[in-house]
Amino acid sequence: MQTIRIKAPSSDTGREPGDRPSRHEDALPLLAGMALAVGAVGAVLALTDIDSPLRGPFTLFFLLAAPGGAIAATLRGLEPWGRIVASISGAVAVNLLVAQAMLALHMWSVRGGVAAIAVIGSLIHLLVLVRRLRRRTPTRRTS
User: Fold this and answer.
1) CA neighbor of 113 nearest in space, from 68, 54, 64
2) Distances in Å between the alpha carbon of 45 and those of 48, 50, 79, 121, 127?
3) In Å, how far from its chain's centre is CA 67?
4) pTM of the full predicted structure?
5) Which residues contact 122 (CB under 8 A, 6 or more apart)?
6) Which pLDDT tens digit goes with each residue over 108-141?
7) Using one digit for the tens of pLDDT, what is the confidence trace for 24-62?
């Protein structure tokens, strides 16, 4: 007996249901978790004013990753490289706007800047989550 094979849709990964993911697919969640940990350590080091040689690089990573990750989450429809460029550019723009606003209001401080970036990144992530939840809830029509 001959079996008929149905062509997979273009959004399919090309793997069979029982296949094991590749090493690159396994490493992506691990890298995301490590990035989250490095960013959190950077924010804690900056907010608590702990002297450490890692404070500068980890805080810089947090200042770029927090708004960059939030902006990347909003741009799910873009190609991967376009999304990366747009999120990094957006992160730099958010950091510059926060710094400019704090300098104009004579309120500049490292702790305040890190806290403002954390709040802005969290708000963007929250808006993305709310938008996704609204799309998933079924709408009821009453006649």
Assistant:
1) 64
2) 5, 5, 34, 18, 27
3) 7
4) 0.73
5) 70
6) 999 999 999 999 999 999 999 998 888 877 666 6
7) 677 878 888 888 899 999 999 999 988 989 999 999 999
